Amino acid sequence: MIEERQNRPAVVLLSGGLDSATALAEAKARGFEPYALTVAYGQRHAVEIEAARRVARATGVGRHVELTIDLRAFGGSALTAEIDVPKDRRADGTGEEIPITYVPARNTVLLSLALAWAETLGAFDLFIGVNCVDYSGYPDCRPEFLRGFENLADLATRAGVEGQGRFRVHAPLLTMTKDQIIRRGLDLGVDYSLTHSCYDPTPAGLSCGRCDSCRLRLAAFEKLGITDPIAYAD
After folding, report:
1. Is residue 2 scored above 50 in pLDDT?
2. Which residues, listed in sequence order, are joined to residue 169 by a DSSP beta bridge?
3. What is the DSSP code string of 98-131?
4. Angle value at C-alpha 13, between 43 and 98, nearest 5 degrees
5. SS3 (DSSP) at 182
């Protein structure tokens, strides 16, 4: 119950995107005191870092930490290497295979950082805005991955080994469609004009309107009969 969670700390992974902003609002609505963690991992859409700052300020968090870990050293993704971001793909063509925008082990890395901070805060709750319904095809957005990470957290930490509590990874958006996520966020007061979703923004920071992330976002707002409040180049 919310009363039991009131002011309990929780670490929320906040990228600055639509989903993570909604997950942050959800954590707060459930009575947790959110501590937001944003990671600059060398992503080409680094404009989302500023979006994360805006969202954290608007939502209100116990603290907002930004870390830099440059995954460009490994590459292997259109988000961290000189690989073209897919554009103008058919909606029914997504999700058939793991896309080139998958960043190897990204959510494992991000959750591990969140776990490290959680242990210093005495927190046992982590929030992440992953979704396995509308689109991704990413292996680290699946329920079985999240359950596996919870087991790892209990085994890999002093708090877990000493039985101080059990770690839980909350993924409140996991089985929601994109339009359902937006509707829930609006109910929670999320200002989506502060967010950024594009994988390949222009140098001025405008969303391309053509990558998978943009197309899903635009389609969801259109389905709701609402105009997306952010600016697009195309």
Report:
1. no
2. 126
3. --TTPPTTHHHHHHHHHHHHHHHHT--EEE----
4. 55
5. helix
